[in-house]
Amino acid sequence: DLILHPNNFKNIPQKEIDSYLLERKDFIDGICMSGGEPTLYPDLPAYFKEIKDKGFLVKLDTNGTNPKLLKNLVDFGLVDYIALDIKSSLDFNNYSKAAGIKDKVMMEKVKDSIKLIMNSKIDYEFRTTVVPLLHSDEIVMEIARYITGAKKYVLQNFSPLEKTLDPSYQKIKPYSDEKIQELSEKAKKYVPNCYWR
């Protein structure tokens, strides 16, 4: 709803968020910044620093298109966990179809982010939402091969029940749980810690 109908939601003042977190500090370990794409906001490092200074852990969900900002977050210890969505195999045609990117520079940025994360000491996972229309067995294996040796790779089964930007996707029948499990078992050849949810 937030992406499709942002005007249906009011802005929450930062003071209200801070107050909410601090009042529940005994029950909340950290925050997760998700999207849209959080790394589009240049003040994200400063915000994460404020959160870290209050004693909270920080998780970031990202599409990996801003490796420069990611490097800043990692280098300065402003993020504790990164979940990077790999939308498809890392060739331009497949990635463009799955993610809607229009230029190869974006594709290279995603690759740079993957390398940055894999070469860092930060805790992370890569994940792919598996959509039958976009992800064959071969494409999932190409992704797993590209991230060989990664700490964790998660296959998420597509759900047509959730609202989608493209309404035609609501008519796509998702893979069975057995099929997703089979794909995760095959991907373990490249990423032993591969599972599905």
Automatic annotation (TrEMBL):
CDD domains: Radical_SAM. It holds the Pfam family Radical_SAM. The keyword Repeat does not apply. Residues 1-193 form the Radical SAM core domain. One of its GO terms (molecular function) is catalytic activity. The keyword Aminoacyl-tRNA synthetase does not apply. Keywords: Iron, Iron-sulfur, Metal-binding, S-adenosyl-L-methionine. Signal peptide: none annotated. This is Radical SAM core domain-containing protein. It comes from marine sediment metagenome.
